[in-house]
Specification:
The chain has about 70 residues and is mainly α. The protein has four helices and no strands. The protein is globular and about 45 Å long. The two termini are about 30 Å apart.
């Protein structure tokens, strides 16, 4: 998964916090409390972690079709 290293808006380093956020949120902890404990107070940084999705599974079918056409 490609995770942004820094927040696009303010430039705060967030890449090092993603793994712990994802594991704790998947374990059932409240995402807001986890973000608070990780020290992410700005909403721009919080949205970077909450809204990140793995898009490679959505892109791969189109890549294979393009390779077939060439």
């Amino acid at each position: 998964m490609m995770i942004p290293i820094r927040c696009f808006t303010c430039g705060t380093l967030i890449g090092d916090k993603f793994a712990s956020f994802q594991s704790r949120a998947n374990a059932g902890e409240d995402a807001g409390k986890v973000l608070d404990e990780l020290g992410l107070k700005r909403y721009c940084c919080r949205r970077m972690l909450i809204s990140s999705v793995d898009v490679i599974d959505q892109v791969l079918p189109f890549y294979s079709r393009k390779a077939d056409l060439q």
